[in-house]
Each structure stands twice: as C-alpha cells, then as structure tokens.
Specification:
Dna Ligase, domain 1; alpha+beta; D-amino Acid Aminotransferase, Chain A, domain 1; about 270 residues; binds adenosine-5'-diphosphate; binds magnesium ion
C-alpha cells in the first residue's frame, strides 16, 4: 500500500516511528507536511495539490494534526475523504476530540464516565456552576489547552469565580469541572487502535503538582487495564468517530472518568513504557 502521513515535522519521534513501522511491513510511505497542501474544489472533482503539484494516488492517510493547525489540517483530511481515500482518523473525529467542551457534550449522552462539568458565560452563573460540580476545590480549564498548560485547580469558590471572570474577560472560554480528588496527580492514558487497547500507562505527577502530564514532569508506568477501563476507552474512541486515539481517564471512585481524547497521541512515552 501507499501511505501518506500528514505531519508538520518529519523528524518528530511519532512520525519517524510510524514511518519505520509502515516500511517494516513493506508499505510505501511518505510524510507530507499538512500546511503544504492546496485544496482545490470544482464541480464533481475534489483535488489536492501538494507543493504546487497535483497529488499522486494514495491508499491510506494517517493524519497527525497538531493543535496549532486544526482548522486547515482537518480541511485537508476532509478533502481526502471526499476523494475516497481511507483516513485512519476522520476529520469530524479530529474536530470532535480537539475541543474539550465538544467532546464531553458528545460523550455525555452515552454511558461513559466523565467528570461533572459545566460551561457558562454569564457572570451570575459562575458561582452556582461551581456549586453544582461539587464546590471548591474545583478544576478550571481552557477548552483547547494541551500539555496541562490550560488547567488549574482553584482552592476556594471565590478564587475560582475570580479566575473564571479574569479568563472570560480575556475572551478565553473555560470549563468548570469537578476535581476528582481521589485521582489527584494521576491519570491513565489508554492507547486505542480500532476495537482494541494496544497499550496503556499511568502518569504520575511530580511532587505537589496535580497535573500528571509528562510535559509537567509526570512520570509513567505501564498498566494492564481491567475490562471497564478498556471498554470505556474503546467506546469513547468510537463515539468520537476515531479509530486511533489516546484516551485520558481519571481513576475515580466510581470507575473511569474520561477527561479528553487525543487524535494524534504521542508514541514516545507509550513505547518506552510498554
Ligand atoms: N477533573 C479533574 N480532576 C483531577 N485532576 C484533573 C482533572 N482534570 C484534569 N486533571 C489533571 O490535569 C491534567 C491535564 O488535564 P487535561 O484535561 O488532560 O488537559 P491537557 O489537555 O492540557 O492535558 C490531567 O492529566 C490530570 O492529571
Ligand atoms: Mg491531557
């Protein structure tokens, strides 16, 4: 088969490993920089140009669309879909998972554990919203943060209210979310491919930090997930409209609580760990 990996960075670990794995299995594979495409539309003929030339035929596309290029990246994937090229993750799945509000909205109608979350815009709604999710300490997060940067823990309802107001005044949309205290400083990343969990790890935060992101100094250990966690991760991936995903779950006292879904999960941590 002839594969295209959509990635901005040929040298990044995950892209390199995907390429090696495809080659080891005897496939032809090219890494194509997502931002070097032109999307051409005319009656009955969706086309793609790459670096100014009409793109040759591909059998399958592995999208690795980073958060900084979501809009254009998902448009490129959508164009491959219009041209009937198999895409490992769909454009709609990538869009669904990219936004924490949108993904929790979609999950909330299914039997998948999620931390109680609210989204408000009116100032008067902030304090009642904090109370509804269980009161302080409470999690506040940006809709599209990554690497733990847009997530904070407010110790009191008053400070939570002030933080939400400050962020909203800066035109930032934020979610107010129940702090899953029993999972403080830990979470689970399940790596789903198709209808299987192919690997999983627990991330443990450094010191007093509550965020377990590796970018925040978190360390990882391999875990074997029980059926509930596996099923939650697989169902979440499918509900999102994805085939490949890293599903992040907190270990709540009532079982897995899905926080977010990553449509381009990094491979370095999980490979090293498992
Ligand atoms: N509701 C919560 N309760 C407890 N810890 C949380 C909660 N939400 C996030 N965290 C911690 O913060 C980290 C980052 O949150 P996450 O929503 O995954 O944002 P990001 O996209 O920046 O990784 C998580 O890995 C987890 O350790
Ligand atoms: Mg995360």
């Amino acid at each position: 088969m002839k594969f295209a990996i959509l990635s901005r960075n040929l040298r990044c670990y995950s892209t390199r490993r995907l390429r090696e794995a495809a080659q080891q299995r005897g496939h032809r594979v090219k890494v194509l920089d997502t931002l070097k495409f032109a999307i051409d539309l005319q009656k009955g003929e969706p086309d793609l140009y790459f670096r100014g030339k009409l793109l040759s035929d591909y059998d399958a596309v592995l999208p690795r669309i980073g958060a900084s290029v979501t809009n254009f990246g998902t448009a490129v994937v959508r164009q491959f879909e219009q041209m009937d090229v198999f895409c490992a993750n769909s454009s709609s799945g990538i869009s669904n998972s990219r936004d924490k509000l949108r993904s929790l909205q979609i999950l909330s109608r299914h039997h998948v554990g999620i931390p109680r979350t609210t989204f408000v815009t009116d100032k008067k709604d902030v304090l009642p919203a904090i109370k509804r999710v269980g009161g302080a300490p409470v999690i506040i997060k940006l809709l599209e943060g990554t690497q733990g940067i847009g997530v904070l823990l407010a110790e009191s309802a008053k400070s939570a209210e002030a933080i939400v107001e400050l962020l909203q005044s800066q035109k930032q949309n934020v979610l107010i979310q129940k702090f899953i205290a029993e999972s403080k400083g830990k979470d689970i990343r399940a790596f789903v491919v198709g209808d299987q969990v192919v690997g999983a790890m627990r991330r443990i935060a450094k010191g007093q930090e509550f965020r377990s992101n590796v970018h925040r100094g978190g360390v990882t250990e391999a875990v074997v997930l029980d059926e509930t966690y596996c099923e939650t991760a697989i169902r979440t991936t499918q509900i999102m409209g994805l085939r490949v995903a890293g599903v992040d779950m907190l270990e709540g006292k009532d079982g897995p609580q899905v926080m977010e879904v990553n449509s381009s999960p990094g491979l370095e941590g999980i490979e090293r760990c498992t």
